[in-house]
Amino acid sequence: MPDRAGPARRRDTSARRLLRHRPTEQSLFSCIYGLVLASALVAALEATGEEADPGPDALWVVLTALAAAAAHGYAHVIAVRASPDGKATGSRLRLVLAEWPLVAAVLPSVAMLLAAVAGWWSEAAAADTALLFNTVALFGWGTWAARVAGYGWPSACRAGGMDMMIGLMVIIADVLIE
Question: Is 120 strand, coil or helix?
């Protein structure tokens, strides 16, 4: 029997599916921050005119992401402590651990650098691929967030494009600095 509700029902189902997988504001912030952080670090650590050493570069990306996540989580702890009511909404450790998406967002870049360590490609190719991946991921996260917020596809793609501009700015800066 054909579906009499037609496209409206299918759109409703699609919207419910998006809402079911809706990322929290905190995870969106952390993922976007992590992608930008990874891009900036990969661009800055890429060896130009010196011997390539992607292993320590990958380690620096992970350690910086861990430090940034811990600092941001601890800033939340301080903000909760300084709030007018002074009540903690959860454990302090939970507030710090909620920053895990920031660390997760740098892992693809780290994997690409580690592939260079394994000799699968050069550090320059790994860095370029990581920058491109992160830029496309910024577009994807921005588009997804806008769709979940109820924007139509054209508006969501514009929002994703604005997020992608951050990645493109890192790439342009990398090219100009080299």
Answer: coil
